UniProtKB/TrEMBL annotation:
Keywords: Cell membrane, Glycosyltransferase, Membrane, Transferase, Transmembrane, Transmembrane helix. One of its GO terms (cellular component) is plasma membrane. It is found in: Cell membrane. This is Glycosyltransferase family 39 protein. It is a multi-pass membrane protein. GO terms for molecular function: pentosyltransferase activity. Pfam families: PMT_2. Signal peptide: none annotated. The lineage of its organism: Archaea, Methanobacteriati, Methanobacteriota, Stenosarchaea group, Methanomicrobia. Its main location: membrane. The chain crosses the membrane at residues 48-65, 119-139, 148-166, 172-190, 197-228, 243-263, 297-314, 321-342, 348-367, 376-396. InterPro entries: LipidA_mod_glycosyltrf_83 (IPR050297), RgtA/B/C-like (IPR038731). GO terms for biological process: lipid biosynthetic process. It comes from Methanoplanus endosymbiosus. Residues 100-257 form the Glycosyltransferase RgtA/B/C/D-like domain.
Length: 507
Protein backbone atom coordinates (compact mmCIF):
# COMPACT_ATOMS: atom_id res chain seq x y z
CA UNK A 1 0.00 0.00 0.00
CA UNK A 2 1.29 3.43 -0.86
CA UNK A 3 1.49 6.28 1.62
CA UNK A 4 -1.46 8.62 1.81
CA UNK A 5 -0.73 12.10 0.64
CA UNK A 6 -0.68 14.76 3.37
CA UNK A 7 -1.83 17.31 0.82
CA UNK A 8 -5.34 18.70 1.39
CA UNK A 9 -7.87 18.35 -1.35
CA UNK A 10 -8.88 21.45 -3.24
CA UNK A 11 -12.40 21.39 -1.80
CA UNK A 12 -11.06 21.15 1.74
CA UNK A 13 -8.75 24.13 1.15
CA UNK A 14 -11.64 26.24 -0.11
CA UNK A 15 -13.80 25.18 2.85
CA UNK A 16 -11.07 26.03 5.37
CA UNK A 17 -10.39 29.36 3.67
CA UNK A 18 -14.09 30.21 3.81
CA UNK A 19 -14.26 29.27 7.50
CA UNK A 20 -11.30 31.52 8.31
CA UNK A 21 -12.79 34.33 6.23
CA UNK A 22 -16.18 34.12 7.97
CA UNK A 23 -14.56 33.93 11.41
CA UNK A 24 -12.45 37.02 10.73
CA UNK A 25 -15.35 38.85 9.14
CA UNK A 26 -17.40 38.62 12.32
CA UNK A 27 -14.63 39.21 14.83
CA UNK A 28 -14.94 41.76 17.62
CA UNK A 29 -11.73 43.68 18.19
CA UNK A 30 -12.88 47.22 18.98
CA UNK A 31 -15.89 49.46 19.47
CA UNK A 32 -16.42 49.57 15.68
CA UNK A 33 -17.40 45.90 15.74
CA UNK A 34 -20.09 46.38 18.37
CA UNK A 35 -23.31 46.21 16.37
CA UNK A 36 -26.18 43.75 16.70
CA UNK A 37 -25.56 41.94 13.40
CA UNK A 38 -21.85 41.48 14.00
CA UNK A 39 -22.36 40.32 17.59
CA UNK A 40 -24.97 37.73 16.57
CA UNK A 41 -22.85 36.43 13.71
CA UNK A 42 -19.77 36.54 15.92
CA UNK A 43 -21.50 34.26 18.42
CA UNK A 44 -22.30 31.90 15.55
CA UNK A 45 -18.97 31.86 13.72
CA UNK A 46 -16.12 33.44 15.71
CA UNK A 47 -14.43 31.36 18.42
CA UNK A 48 -13.18 34.36 20.38
CA UNK A 49 -16.66 35.89 20.50
CA UNK A 50 -18.01 32.49 21.52
CA UNK A 51 -15.46 32.19 24.33
CA UNK A 52 -16.14 35.78 25.46
CA UNK A 53 -19.88 35.08 25.48
CA UNK A 54 -19.24 31.98 27.56
CA UNK A 55 -17.10 33.98 29.98
CA UNK A 56 -19.83 36.60 30.40
CA UNK A 57 -22.38 33.86 31.14
CA UNK A 58 -19.98 32.27 33.64
CA UNK A 59 -19.35 35.71 35.14
CA UNK A 60 -23.10 36.22 35.60
CA UNK A 61 -23.43 32.87 37.36
CA UNK A 62 -20.39 33.39 39.62
CA UNK A 63 -21.53 36.86 40.67
CA UNK A 64 -25.26 36.29 41.12
CA UNK A 65 -25.17 32.80 42.63
CA UNK A 66 -25.77 32.87 46.40
CA UNK A 67 -25.72 36.66 46.32
CA UNK A 68 -27.72 36.78 49.56
CA UNK A 69 -25.83 33.96 51.28
CA UNK A 70 -23.50 36.08 53.43
CA UNK A 71 -24.83 38.45 56.05
CA UNK A 72 -24.27 42.16 55.60
CA UNK A 73 -21.03 43.16 57.29
CA UNK A 74 -20.13 46.55 58.74
CA UNK A 75 -19.29 48.37 55.50
CA UNK A 76 -22.38 47.05 53.72
CA UNK A 77 -24.59 48.05 56.64
CA UNK A 78 -22.97 51.49 56.43
CA UNK A 79 -23.96 51.61 52.77
CA UNK A 80 -27.57 50.92 53.76
CA UNK A 81 -27.39 53.60 56.45
CA UNK A 82 -26.29 56.25 53.94
CA UNK A 83 -28.63 55.02 51.19
CA UNK A 84 -31.65 55.57 53.45
CA UNK A 85 -30.91 59.31 53.51
CA UNK A 86 -32.10 61.81 50.91
CA UNK A 87 -29.95 62.52 47.85
CA UNK A 88 -28.83 65.85 49.29
CA UNK A 89 -28.13 64.35 52.73
CA UNK A 90 -25.97 61.69 51.06
CA UNK A 91 -23.90 64.37 49.33
CA UNK A 92 -23.68 66.38 52.56
CA UNK A 93 -22.46 63.28 54.44
CA UNK A 94 -19.76 62.65 51.83
CA UNK A 95 -18.43 66.13 52.57
CA UNK A 96 -18.63 65.98 56.36
CA UNK A 97 -18.18 62.41 57.57
CA UNK A 98 -17.79 59.81 54.81
CA UNK A 99 -14.58 59.24 52.83
CA UNK A 100 -16.39 57.78 49.81
CA UNK A 101 -17.99 59.83 47.02
CA UNK A 102 -21.81 59.86 46.87
CA UNK A 103 -22.45 58.23 43.46
CA UNK A 104 -22.74 54.65 44.71
CA UNK A 105 -24.92 55.70 47.64
CA UNK A 106 -27.22 57.53 45.22
CA UNK A 107 -27.60 54.37 43.15
CA UNK A 108 -28.32 52.32 46.27
CA UNK A 109 -30.80 54.98 47.42
CA UNK A 110 -32.80 54.41 44.23
CA UNK A 111 -32.52 50.64 44.61
CA UNK A 112 -34.18 50.82 48.03
CA UNK A 113 -37.46 51.36 46.17
CA UNK A 114 -37.28 47.61 45.48
CA UNK A 115 -36.47 46.63 49.07
CA UNK A 116 -33.58 46.42 51.52
CA UNK A 117 -32.57 42.79 51.07
CA UNK A 118 -28.98 41.61 50.69
CA UNK A 119 -29.72 40.80 47.04
CA UNK A 120 -31.00 44.29 46.27
CA UNK A 121 -28.05 45.98 47.97
CA UNK A 122 -25.50 43.79 46.17
CA UNK A 123 -27.22 43.75 42.77
CA UNK A 124 -25.38 46.68 41.16
CA UNK A 125 -21.93 45.66 42.42
CA UNK A 126 -22.59 42.30 40.73
CA UNK A 127 -23.72 44.01 37.51
CA UNK A 128 -20.63 46.24 37.40
CA UNK A 129 -18.46 43.17 37.99
CA UNK A 130 -20.11 41.45 35.02
CA UNK A 131 -19.82 44.50 32.75
CA UNK A 132 -16.07 44.66 33.43
CA UNK A 133 -15.53 41.34 31.59
CA UNK A 134 -16.04 42.60 27.99
CA UNK A 135 -14.19 45.82 28.84
CA UNK A 136 -11.11 43.81 29.84
CA UNK A 137 -11.35 41.93 26.55
CA UNK A 138 -11.46 45.14 24.50
CA UNK A 139 -8.53 46.64 26.42
CA UNK A 140 -6.46 43.53 25.68
CA UNK A 141 -7.43 43.73 22.01
CA UNK A 142 -6.35 47.35 21.88
CA UNK A 143 -3.05 46.79 23.70
CA UNK A 144 -2.13 43.72 21.64
CA UNK A 145 -4.65 41.25 20.18
CA UNK A 146 -7.67 39.02 20.83
CA UNK A 147 -5.61 36.36 22.60
CA UNK A 148 -4.46 38.87 25.21
CA UNK A 149 -8.00 40.21 25.43
CA UNK A 150 -9.60 36.82 26.02
CA UNK A 151 -7.02 35.85 28.67
CA UNK A 152 -7.60 39.16 30.47
CA UNK A 153 -11.36 38.59 30.30
CA UNK A 154 -10.89 35.10 31.73
CA UNK A 155 -8.78 36.41 34.61
CA UNK A 156 -11.39 38.97 35.67
CA UNK A 157 -14.21 36.43 35.22
CA UNK A 158 -12.73 33.92 37.68
CA UNK A 159 -10.81 36.36 39.90
CA UNK A 160 -11.64 35.57 43.56
CA UNK A 161 -10.88 39.21 44.42
CA UNK A 162 -13.31 40.51 41.79
CA UNK A 163 -15.98 37.93 42.64
CA UNK A 164 -15.85 38.79 46.34
CA UNK A 165 -16.35 42.51 45.74
CA UNK A 166 -19.00 41.83 43.10
CA UNK A 167 -20.98 40.35 45.99
CA UNK A 168 -20.26 43.23 48.35
CA UNK A 169 -22.56 46.24 48.69
CA UNK A 170 -19.77 48.76 48.24
CA UNK A 171 -18.51 50.86 45.34
CA UNK A 172 -15.41 48.84 44.46
CA UNK A 173 -16.63 47.03 41.33
CA UNK A 174 -18.24 50.25 40.12
CA UNK A 175 -14.83 51.89 40.50
CA UNK A 176 -13.24 48.98 38.62
CA UNK A 177 -15.76 49.26 35.79
CA UNK A 178 -15.55 53.02 35.27
CA UNK A 179 -11.77 53.17 35.50
CA UNK A 180 -11.43 50.22 33.09
CA UNK A 181 -13.83 51.99 30.74
CA UNK A 182 -11.85 55.23 31.02
CA UNK A 183 -8.62 53.32 30.27
CA UNK A 184 -10.23 51.81 27.17
CA UNK A 185 -11.50 55.23 26.05
CA UNK A 186 -8.03 56.66 26.65
CA UNK A 187 -6.51 54.06 24.33
CA UNK A 188 -9.11 54.91 21.69
CA UNK A 189 -8.40 58.64 22.15
CA UNK A 190 -4.67 58.08 21.61
CA UNK A 191 -5.37 56.13 18.46
CA UNK A 192 -8.29 58.05 16.94
CA UNK A 193 -7.03 61.52 17.91
CA UNK A 194 -10.49 63.06 17.80
CA UNK A 195 -12.38 65.18 20.28
CA UNK A 196 -15.16 62.62 20.78
CA UNK A 197 -12.94 60.06 22.49
CA UNK A 198 -11.11 62.65 24.58
CA UNK A 199 -14.45 63.94 25.90
CA UNK A 200 -15.69 60.39 26.60
CA UNK A 201 -12.39 59.68 28.36
CA UNK A 202 -12.89 62.78 30.50
CA UNK A 203 -16.47 61.79 31.35
CA UNK A 204 -15.64 58.18 32.26
CA UNK A 205 -12.65 59.30 34.32
CA UNK A 206 -14.93 61.67 36.22
CA UNK A 207 -17.42 58.86 36.87
CA UNK A 208 -14.55 56.74 38.18
CA UNK A 209 -13.64 59.54 40.61
CA UNK A 210 -17.27 59.85 41.68
CA UNK A 211 -17.03 56.13 42.50
CA UNK A 212 -13.85 56.25 44.61
CA UNK A 213 -11.34 58.99 45.34
CA UNK A 214 -8.36 56.66 44.98
CA UNK A 215 -8.63 56.56 41.18
CA UNK A 216 -7.42 60.16 41.01
CA UNK A 217 -3.92 58.65 41.00
CA UNK A 218 -4.64 56.42 38.02
CA UNK A 219 -6.40 59.19 36.12
CA UNK A 220 -3.46 61.51 36.78
CA UNK A 221 -1.07 58.93 35.33
CA UNK A 222 -3.20 58.67 32.17
CA UNK A 223 -3.15 62.46 31.78
CA UNK A 224 0.62 62.63 32.28
CA UNK A 225 1.14 59.76 29.84
CA UNK A 226 -0.95 61.60 27.25
CA UNK A 227 1.18 64.74 27.61
CA UNK A 228 4.50 62.87 27.45
CA UNK A 229 3.61 60.66 24.48
CA UNK A 230 2.01 63.50 22.51
CA UNK A 231 4.30 66.34 23.60
CA UNK A 232 5.79 67.00 20.18
CA UNK A 233 2.43 66.74 18.46
CA UNK A 234 0.77 69.05 21.00
CA UNK A 235 3.61 71.52 20.52
CA UNK A 236 3.46 71.52 16.73
CA UNK A 237 -0.27 70.97 16.25
CA UNK A 238 -2.53 73.27 18.24
CA UNK A 239 -5.68 71.40 17.21
CA UNK A 240 -4.36 68.17 18.77
CA UNK A 241 -3.54 70.02 21.97
CA UNK A 242 -6.95 71.65 21.92
CA UNK A 243 -8.91 68.38 21.76
CA UNK A 244 -6.87 66.98 24.64
CA UNK A 245 -7.59 70.09 26.71
CA UNK A 246 -11.30 69.74 25.93
CA UNK A 247 -11.20 66.20 27.32
CA UNK A 248 -9.32 67.42 30.39
CA UNK A 249 -11.85 70.22 30.83
CA UNK A 250 -14.76 67.76 30.67
CA UNK A 251 -13.13 65.79 33.48
CA UNK A 252 -12.49 68.87 35.61
CA UNK A 253 -16.00 70.30 35.21
CA UNK A 254 -17.69 67.09 36.40
CA UNK A 255 -15.08 66.35 39.08
CA UNK A 256 -14.65 69.87 40.47
CA UNK A 257 -17.05 69.45 43.44
CA UNK A 258 -15.14 66.34 44.53
CA UNK A 259 -11.62 67.72 44.17
CA UNK A 260 -12.19 70.21 47.00
CA UNK A 261 -13.95 67.55 49.08
CA UNK A 262 -11.09 65.09 48.50
CA UNK A 263 -8.53 67.45 50.01
CA UNK A 264 -10.76 68.23 53.00
CA UNK A 265 -11.45 64.55 53.68
CA UNK A 266 -7.74 63.74 53.45
CA UNK A 267 -6.96 66.41 56.05
CA UNK A 268 -9.69 65.07 58.33
CA UNK A 269 -8.54 61.45 58.05
CA UNK A 270 -4.86 62.27 58.49
CA UNK A 271 -5.37 64.13 61.78
CA UNK A 272 -4.81 60.86 63.67
CA UNK A 273 -2.54 57.93 62.91
CA UNK A 274 -4.46 55.09 61.21
CA UNK A 275 -5.62 52.28 63.48
CA UNK A 276 -6.86 50.01 60.69
CA UNK A 277 -5.80 48.92 57.21
CA UNK A 278 -2.38 47.74 56.04
CA UNK A 279 0.67 49.89 56.71
CA UNK A 280 3.90 50.45 54.80
CA UNK A 281 5.62 48.20 52.31
CA UNK A 282 3.48 45.21 53.31
CA UNK A 283 0.64 46.88 51.40
CA UNK A 284 2.40 46.02 48.12
CA UNK A 285 2.69 42.30 48.83
CA UNK A 286 -0.84 42.23 50.24
CA UNK A 287 -2.22 43.91 47.11
CA UNK A 288 -0.64 41.39 44.75
CA UNK A 289 -1.82 38.58 47.00
CA UNK A 290 -5.40 39.89 46.89
CA UNK A 291 -5.23 40.44 43.12
CA UNK A 292 -4.09 36.82 42.74
CA UNK A 293 -6.90 35.16 44.64
CA UNK A 294 -5.59 35.68 48.18
CA UNK A 295 -2.80 33.20 47.49
CA UNK A 296 0.85 34.27 47.76
CA UNK A 297 2.20 31.39 45.66
CA UNK A 298 -0.14 32.30 42.81
CA UNK A 299 0.80 35.95 43.33
CA UNK A 300 4.50 35.18 42.78
CA UNK A 301 3.67 33.31 39.58
CA UNK A 302 1.37 36.12 38.37
CA UNK A 303 4.04 38.75 39.09
CA UNK A 304 6.55 36.76 37.01
CA UNK A 305 4.04 36.44 34.15
CA UNK A 306 3.27 40.16 34.42
CA UNK A 307 6.98 41.01 34.15
CA UNK A 308 7.40 38.68 31.16
CA UNK A 309 4.41 40.27 29.46
CA UNK A 310 5.52 43.82 30.18
CA UNK A 311 9.10 43.18 29.01
CA UNK A 312 7.71 41.70 25.80
CA UNK A 313 5.51 44.78 25.32
CA UNK A 314 8.56 47.04 25.70
CA UNK A 315 9.92 45.63 22.46
CA UNK A 316 6.58 45.97 20.69
CA UNK A 317 5.20 49.23 22.06
CA UNK A 318 7.33 51.20 24.51
CA UNK A 319 4.60 53.76 25.16
CA UNK A 320 2.06 51.15 26.26
CA UNK A 321 4.62 49.34 28.42
CA UNK A 322 5.46 52.60 30.22
CA UNK A 323 1.74 53.18 30.73
CA UNK A 324 1.20 49.72 32.25
CA UNK A 325 4.24 49.94 34.52
CA UNK A 326 3.32 53.46 35.59
CA UNK A 327 -0.24 52.43 36.44
CA UNK A 328 1.05 49.63 38.65
CA UNK A 329 4.13 51.16 40.28
CA UNK A 330 3.02 54.73 41.03
CA UNK A 331 -0.29 53.92 42.81
CA UNK A 332 1.43 51.25 44.91
CA UNK A 333 4.24 53.60 45.99
CA UNK A 334 1.76 56.40 46.65
CA UNK A 335 -0.39 54.04 48.75
CA UNK A 336 2.61 52.96 50.82
CA UNK A 337 3.45 56.61 51.54
CA UNK A 338 -0.05 57.70 52.56
CA UNK A 339 -0.68 54.51 54.57
CA UNK A 340 1.14 56.26 57.42
CA UNK A 341 -1.47 59.03 57.29
CA UNK A 342 -4.80 57.41 56.38
CA UNK A 343 -6.17 53.83 56.44
CA UNK A 344 -5.32 51.97 53.24
CA UNK A 345 -6.42 48.60 51.92
CA UNK A 346 -5.79 46.57 48.73
CA UNK A 347 -9.47 46.86 47.84
CA UNK A 348 -8.93 50.59 47.24
CA UNK A 349 -6.55 49.54 44.44
CA UNK A 350 -9.05 47.29 42.67
CA UNK A 351 -8.91 49.64 39.68
CA UNK A 352 -5.40 48.29 38.93
CA UNK A 353 -6.80 44.88 37.93
CA UNK A 354 -7.10 45.63 34.18
CA UNK A 355 -3.44 46.67 34.07
CA UNK A 356 -2.23 43.68 36.10
CA UNK A 357 -4.32 41.15 34.18
CA UNK A 358 -3.40 42.63 30.78
CA UNK A 359 0.27 42.26 31.73
CA UNK A 360 -0.32 38.61 32.62
CA UNK A 361 -2.22 38.11 29.36
CA UNK A 362 0.68 39.60 27.39
CA UNK A 363 3.01 36.88 28.72
CA UNK A 364 1.07 34.41 26.57
CA UNK A 365 2.55 35.87 23.37
CA UNK A 366 6.28 35.16 24.01
CA UNK A 367 5.37 31.81 25.59
CA UNK A 368 3.38 30.91 22.49
CA UNK A 369 6.37 31.84 20.31
CA UNK A 370 8.42 29.31 22.28
CA UNK A 371 5.77 26.57 22.27
CA UNK A 372 4.86 27.19 18.60
CA UNK A 373 1.38 25.71 18.87
CA UNK A 374 -1.79 27.63 18.05
CA UNK A 375 -3.77 25.61 20.59
CA UNK A 376 -1.48 26.66 23.43
CA UNK A 377 -3.98 29.37 24.36
CA UNK A 378 -6.42 26.70 25.53
CA UNK A 379 -3.75 25.11 27.71
CA UNK A 380 -2.85 28.55 29.13
CA UNK A 381 -6.49 29.32 29.91
CA UNK A 382 -7.12 25.87 31.38
CA UNK A 383 -4.18 26.37 33.73
CA UNK A 384 -5.56 29.71 34.93
CA UNK A 385 -8.91 28.07 35.61
CA UNK A 386 -7.30 25.13 37.40
CA UNK A 387 -5.44 27.25 39.95
CA UNK A 388 -8.70 28.97 40.93
CA UNK A 389 -10.64 25.76 41.57
CA UNK A 390 -9.71 25.58 45.30
CA UNK A 391 -11.27 29.00 45.85
CA UNK A 392 -14.42 28.11 43.90
CA UNK A 393 -14.78 24.86 45.85
CA UNK A 394 -15.07 26.65 49.19
CA UNK A 395 -16.31 30.19 48.49
CA UNK A 396 -19.96 29.33 47.86
CA UNK A 397 -20.28 26.79 50.66
CA UNK A 398 -18.90 28.76 53.62
CA UNK A 399 -19.30 32.25 55.02
CA UNK A 400 -16.75 34.81 53.87
CA UNK A 401 -18.16 37.59 56.08
CA UNK A 402 -19.24 37.72 59.72
CA UNK A 403 -22.54 35.85 60.08
CA UNK A 404 -24.57 38.52 61.85
CA UNK A 405 -27.80 36.78 60.90
CA UNK A 406 -26.84 33.52 62.63
CA UNK A 407 -25.41 35.41 65.59
CA UNK A 408 -28.62 37.41 66.03
CA UNK A 409 -30.71 34.24 66.03
CA UNK A 410 -28.50 32.81 68.78
CA UNK A 411 -28.71 36.05 70.75
CA UNK A 412 -32.49 35.95 70.62
CA UNK A 413 -32.43 32.52 72.19
CA UNK A 414 -30.12 33.51 75.06
CA UNK A 415 -31.43 36.85 76.30
CA UNK A 416 -34.37 37.51 78.60
CA UNK A 417 -36.67 40.51 79.00
CA UNK A 418 -34.85 43.56 80.33
CA UNK A 419 -31.31 42.32 79.68
CA UNK A 420 -28.71 44.87 78.59
CA UNK A 421 -27.07 44.42 75.18
CA UNK A 422 -23.82 46.38 74.86
CA UNK A 423 -22.30 46.64 71.37
CA UNK A 424 -18.54 47.24 71.18
CA UNK A 425 -17.42 49.17 69.16
CA UNK A 426 -20.68 51.09 68.96
CA UNK A 427 -20.75 51.33 65.18
CA UNK A 428 -21.12 47.53 64.97
CA UNK A 429 -24.76 48.13 65.82
CA UNK A 430 -25.30 48.73 62.09
CA UNK A 431 -24.90 45.12 60.88
CA UNK A 432 -26.34 43.77 64.16
CA UNK A 433 -29.57 45.74 63.93
CA UNK A 434 -30.15 44.71 60.34
CA UNK A 435 -30.97 41.26 61.76
CA UNK A 436 -31.63 41.86 65.46
CA UNK A 437 -34.39 43.94 67.05
CA UNK A 438 -34.00 44.76 70.73
CA UNK A 439 -37.61 46.00 70.83
CA UNK A 440 -39.04 42.64 69.75
CA UNK A 441 -36.51 40.83 71.97
CA UNK A 442 -37.41 43.23 74.81
CA UNK A 443 -33.82 44.08 75.68
CA UNK A 444 -32.03 47.39 76.18
CA UNK A 445 -29.37 48.12 73.55
CA UNK A 446 -26.43 50.39 74.40
CA UNK A 447 -23.27 51.39 72.54
CA UNK A 448 -19.71 51.61 73.86
CA UNK A 449 -16.25 52.28 72.45
CA UNK A 450 -14.20 52.78 75.62
CA UNK A 451 -13.79 51.21 79.03
CA UNK A 452 -15.06 54.44 80.62
CA UNK A 453 -18.41 53.97 78.86
CA UNK A 454 -18.53 50.35 79.99
CA UNK A 455 -17.91 51.40 83.59
CA UNK A 456 -20.74 53.96 83.39
CA UNK A 457 -23.13 51.31 82.03
CA UNK A 458 -22.13 48.94 84.82
CA UNK A 459 -22.84 51.59 87.46
CA UNK A 460 -26.18 52.57 85.92
CA UNK A 461 -27.47 48.99 85.64
CA UNK A 462 -25.75 47.12 88.51
CA UNK A 463 -28.49 44.50 88.96
CA UNK A 464 -29.19 43.71 85.31
CA UNK A 465 -27.57 40.97 83.25
CA UNK A 466 -25.37 42.48 80.58
CA UNK A 467 -24.30 40.87 77.32
CA UNK A 468 -21.32 42.35 75.50
CA UNK A 469 -21.07 41.96 71.73
CA UNK A 470 -17.50 42.50 70.59
CA UNK A 471 -15.62 42.22 67.29
CA UNK A 472 -11.97 42.50 66.29
CA UNK A 473 -12.57 46.16 65.49
CA UNK A 474 -12.29 46.86 69.20
CA UNK A 475 -8.55 47.48 68.80
CA UNK A 476 -9.18 49.95 65.97
CA UNK A 477 -11.70 51.82 68.12
CA UNK A 478 -9.48 51.73 71.21
CA UNK A 479 -5.82 51.05 70.30
CA UNK A 480 -4.81 51.50 73.95
CA UNK A 481 -6.36 48.13 74.78
CA UNK A 482 -8.22 49.52 77.79
CA UNK A 483 -11.63 48.38 76.57
CA UNK A 484 -10.44 44.86 75.84
CA UNK A 485 -8.79 44.55 79.26
CA UNK A 486 -11.95 45.76 81.03
CA UNK A 487 -14.00 43.12 79.22
CA UNK A 488 -11.51 40.41 80.12
CA UNK A 489 -11.73 41.42 83.79
CA UNK A 490 -15.50 41.89 83.96
CA UNK A 491 -17.01 39.42 81.52
CA UNK A 492 -17.10 35.73 80.65
CA UNK A 493 -16.86 34.60 77.03
CA UNK A 494 -19.99 32.63 76.13
CA UNK A 495 -18.91 31.89 72.60
CA UNK A 496 -17.51 33.06 69.30
CA UNK A 497 -19.48 33.28 66.06
CA UNK A 498 -16.81 33.75 63.37
CA UNK A 499 -15.34 37.19 64.22
CA UNK A 500 -18.12 38.10 66.65
CA UNK A 501 -17.67 37.45 70.37
CA UNK A 502 -20.42 37.26 72.99
CA UNK A 503 -19.54 37.91 76.64
CA UNK A 504 -21.75 37.93 79.73
CA UNK A 505 -21.21 40.13 82.76
CA UNK A 506 -19.78 38.49 85.85
CA UNK A 507 -22.34 37.69 88.58
Amino acid sequence: MGKKSGRKKKGEEVKNDNTVFIEEKYSINSYRDLNAKNIINGIRYNRFVQILTGLIIIGIILRLYNLSFNSLWLDEATTLNYARRSLFEIFESSIISEFHPPLFYWIEHLMLNFGETEFILRFWPAVFGILAIPIFYLIGCEIKNREVGIISALLITISPFAIFYSQDARSYTMTLFFFSLSLLCYLYALKEKNVKWWIIFGLTSALALWSHYYVIIGTGILMIHAIITNYKEFRNNKSSCKIFLIGLLSFLIISLPLIFVLYQRYLALSEKAPTSGILGISLISASFEYFSGYNWYIAVMFILLFLIGTLYLMRENLSYSILILGLIIVPLIFSVIISAKIPTNPRYLIYLLPVFYIGIGLSYVPLKNIIKNNKFIYVFMAFLILINIPFMATYYTGYSKNDWKGFSENLNGITENGDIIVVIPGYMVQPLNYYYSNSSDRTIELLASSHETLMDINKKYPEKTKYYIMTGDIMAADPSGGTLKWLQDNGNVLGQHMGIYLLKSNP
